[in-house]
Amino acid sequence: MTAPCSAPLPRRRLRPMALRLTLASAAVCASAAAQPPADLRERLAACAACHGERGEGVDGSIYYPHLAGKPAGYLVEQLQAFRDGRRHYWQMVWLAQYMDDAYIAEIAAYYAAQPPHTRAADVTAAPLPPAVQGRAEHLVRHGDAQAGIPACTACHGAALTGLEPAVPALVGLPQDYIVSQIGSWRDGTRRSKAPDCMAGIAAKLAPADIRILAQWLSHQSPGAHDRPAPAGSFVPPLACGDLPHAEVQP
Amino acid sequence: MIRRIALWAAALVLPLVLLAAAAGGFLLLQQGGLAPYRVPVADATTPPAGDASEGAYLARIGNCLTCHTVRGGAPFAGGRPFRTAYGTIYSTNLTSDPQTGLGDWSAAEFRHAMRNGVSRHGVLYPAFPYANFAHLTDTDIDALFAYLRGLPPVQAPAPANDLVWPANWRPALVGWRMLHYRPTPLAAPADASPAWLRGRYLVDGLGHCAMCHGTRGPRGSLPADGYLAGGRIPGQGWYAPPLDSRQLARYSVDQLADYLRNGASEHGAAYGSMAEVVYTSLRHLRPTDAQAMATYLKNVPPHGGDEAPDASRFLYAGAQPTSNPHNGGRLYQDHCASCHGDTGEGRGRDYPPLRGAVSVTAPDPINAVRMVLYGGMPPTTEGNPRPHSMPPYAGRLDNAEIAAIVTHIRSNWGEQSRPVSPADVAAYYGIRGD
Question: What is the CATH number assigned to the segment(s) B316-427?
């Protein structure tokens, strides 16, 4: 997929010239039939309020995740989860609950096609004390074999930028958001399609490890062109939803 | 001596007892006598005779799915909570499971429950719109039954209701019916058109529109004089407007039929409870049925004649506003005008006009406040597959600012002189999930 797919669109009425330019730029980056039509940004004003106009996130937000550049399959699954009762953040349920799969797919494709440029590292999170920095990095890169916790990088990629078609990036996320998601997996208020691998991992994580992981991750920012790893470029070791995975030894 | 006292007492008490018995008998007759309580016992093994494919359509239009499915749960397996003034009740399982669903019901029992609101479980709560379903033809009820009996069985007992006394005691519902239930067959005016008759059948029967659009009386009743007269929907946090020729004057019959099926129009988009009804039910309406409903609704006589609706029926949360709404116009320009227009004119089907909108003209301000707080996304439908959305302002504007905006639009374009206070906004904060 080519990177510059995000020519800013005119805010109000499209003039014919602008329309032609927009269509031209759409043609340049049309890597898939799902290329979103030019007016989607205007239609998604509700999303922009918290996620930014192109899903890049909002400066100063201590909670809302970015959407830009995340794999479309992941975004589809999340919108369906809000609609179908697997996630319960009510402001999202409110907006997604009467939305059919076709519009969900179009919205997901729109945000997935944006450059994954998010705001800089989470400045609201305190720097990690050196004493636990090593522990956090070890969990991220190697996991904790004794506790049965795989490395984050095993599924989310060595650069933590995710994996097509449906594993999200872990970089560029606010600390509170990460803590909240892992907590939600632990208490069942966030569920993924079975097998729900993250629910299993979240249950094994010690509370202190959740905090330092979130703090460490929230200081990582993706580069402007760091897209999710291509599908099939590596094979995650865990069975997650209906994604491909390596055979796991019992 | 004792005998004389007993005689006197009997002479005094007996008339009272007789009077009470007569009144009870009269009220019992008013709600249909004893016949509703005789649930027919019949063989449940006979295969349903109705047309299951027509039943699938009727179940859609009756919107059985919305009430009888919990979010993310198996369709028709029940369990959705309904919050009422008397506590929470849960919908039941309509799948063909013999233990927890309709699997060992006979067609006769199903007909009886639909028409009378009484089943093997006793008197049903009036959250189940049997007063509406009483109008259905045998053919349609049998078609529904054939469809429901064909659903895959799902073992799902309904959660226990959590109600206060006396509502938690089913026999008390007989008393409620004596006070409030007046079964009334639909009369057939000689000059009625087929479209009007079909429309009324759908609106008053399967569609049970009055459950939300009727004005509620005491104890959650739906008295005849509140028929489609509008009001706050119990447990939902939305105001449903009256449905009559005055309220719907801005729609043509074609536009209204189009709105019912697509949830969008040049006069406004469906939001709140109506968005759900369009998404799960009305978008499946056959065009002729949508035309029929619109024809009927456009001919419902205006409530209260030419008088404006009585705002005193609708409680405002706050006493009187503490903020000066003078900045409402400026805030409107900053946050709303780019979509809704400088004079509230909107932009076609994309951005609803505020001038004349229900949220702006209604005596109850709750819809306007909640839309500004939490924004909205109309349902996706065939005619509106990619809806425009409204951003939420909760957290971006404070209660006083939201109150000022809502007061501005309601006083300028809704002729609602009563200001909305920050306390009103605070009272409507919070999305209640199910």
Answer: 1.10.760.10
ipTM of model: 0.90
Q: Do A45 and B374 touch (CB under 8 A)?
A: no
Residue-wise pLDDT tens digits, A46-104: 999 999 988 988 876 778 999 999 999 999 999 999 999 999 999 999 999 999 999 99
- The Cα A181–Cα A71 span in angstroms is 18
B-chain residues near A44 (CB < 8 A): 389
Check if the beta carbon of residue B321 is closer than 8 Å to that of residue B401. Answer: no
8-state DSSP, B351? B
In terms of Cα–Cα distance, which of B188, B220, B180 is closest to B204?
B188
The verdict on a CB contact (< 8 Å) between A45 and B339 is yes
Q: What's the pTM? A: 0.89
Please tell us whether the domain made up of A47-217 is placed in CATH 3.60.20.10. no
Alpha-carbon distance values, B181 to A8, B48, B116 (Å): 61, 30, 10
- Cβ contact A86–B72 (<8 Å): yes
Sign of the CA dihedral with B350 first, then B355, B358, and B360 last: positive
Residue ranges covered by each domain of chain B:
40-180, 194-297, 316-427
Give the phi and the psi of residue A235 in degrees, each rounded to 5.
-115, 115
The domain spans of chain A are 47-217
